[in-house]
Amino acid sequence: MRLLRIDLIILLTAIVSSEALVAQDSQGTAASENISVLDVSFEKDGGFIDDIQADEIRIDGKAESRVTAIEPIGELPLRVVFLVDISASQVGVSTDGRRRGIRQEAQRFYQEAIKLLPLRVSDSACLVAFNHRITVLQDFTSNKDLLMKSVSNLPPPIGPTRLLDALHLSNRALAVQGDSRRVVIVLTDGNDTSSSQAIEGVYKEAIDHNVRVYFIVSQRDSQRFSLFGRDIKKHEKFVKRTGGRALSFRDEKSMDKLITRIYDELEHLKRISITSQEPLTPDLEISVSRKGVRVNHPSPIK
């Protein structure tokens, strides 16, 4: 009888230990799940849509990945850094061969961008110029008059270019802006001659800080556009990984349309939570089951 009692105690102890190990393993599995949060937009027929549901979203290339939540973030504060290229490469060549500055074109672009910017009291934007120096012309403000005044006083184009360094400093400035929609809008040709930062590192930093970069190019000066085409292409693939876009315009009408489209996208952003067994990788592709809908989303850089 005593031996039977001892055997029973041993058996119960083994069962309890086994259950504890199962619970520990279950907790370990749950703890090993990765939750990634991405700000995305859903586009169809040239417009942005808001009624996509979590169960319509597919995470391609990642086994056992799923979207567990989706919420609109158009009401989050908007933080915009307008980066202005004032380097020597911003001097164009007209069709008759005469040198001409494009300072007026840059002023027109940023004036229109500020005019159309949907600034609420909780929103703010700043203006930063760069050549071989990086200068804050106007710190973050919700006052459009101050921003317009700074644009009217842009320095003439001169000196080397520190585009990547300017993007790096913009990322750092936006990283401390709390939970917000963080955006860099830069009108440039992509030609960088003197930055200390590397292109991969700068855009990885933008992704890590949830900063969307919109890279804008003017095609009015065809010779200049052709000259810097390689630099532009180099930035395009990285800009897309931030969730932003590389865009171009040829005239006033297409310029206004481009600016309006950027702001429209920012108003329709959604935040999705992705649960997966492993961290997201550079081959990340997000799609939806609804026909004709394209997802514009950030993706990691190696």
Describe this structure in words.
- The protein has 302 residues and is an alpha/beta fold.
- It has 2 domains: 34-74 and 269-302, no CATH class; 78-267, Rossmann fold.
- The protein has 8 helices and 15 strands.
- Helix 2 packs parallel to helix 8 (252-267), helix 4 packs parallel to helix 5 (199-208) and helix 5 (199-208) runs parallel beside helix 7.
- The radius of gyration is 25 Å and the shape is globular.
- The termini are far apart.
- Mean pLDDT is 85; it is low at 1-30 and 93-100.
Summarize the structure in short.
This protein is 37% helix and 29% strand. By secondary structure, it is of the alpha/beta class. The chain has 2 domains: 75 residues, no CATH class; 190 residues, von Willebrand factor, type A domain (Rossmann fold).
CATH class of the largest domain: Alpha Beta
Proportion in helices: 25-40%
Which stretches are low in confidence, meaning pLDDT under 50 for 5 or more residues running? 1-30, 93-100
Mean pLDDT, nearest integer?
A: 85
Compute the number of structural domains.
Answer: 2
Neighbour order of strands in the largest sheet: 9-8-5-10-11-12
Summarize this structure as a short list of keywords or feature phrases.
single chain; 6-stranded mixed beta sheet; 2 domains; 5-stranded antiparallel beta sheet; alpha/beta; 15 strands; Rossmann fold; globular; 302 residues; disordered N terminus
Helix and strand layout, with pairings?
Layout: H1 2-32, E1 34-44, E2 47-48, E3 57-60, E4 66-72, E5 78-85, E6 91-93, E7 99-101, H2 103-116, E8 124-130, E9 134-141, H3 144-152, H4 163-175, E10 181-187, H5 199-208, E11 211-218, H6 222-227, H7 229-241, E12 245-249, H8 252-267, E13 270-276, E14 285-288, E15 294-296
Parallel strand pairs: 5-8, 5-10, 10-11, 11-12
Antiparallel strand pairs: 1-2, 1-13, 1-15, 3-14, 4-13, 6-7, 8-9
Helix pairs in contact: 2-3, 2-8, 4-5, 5-7
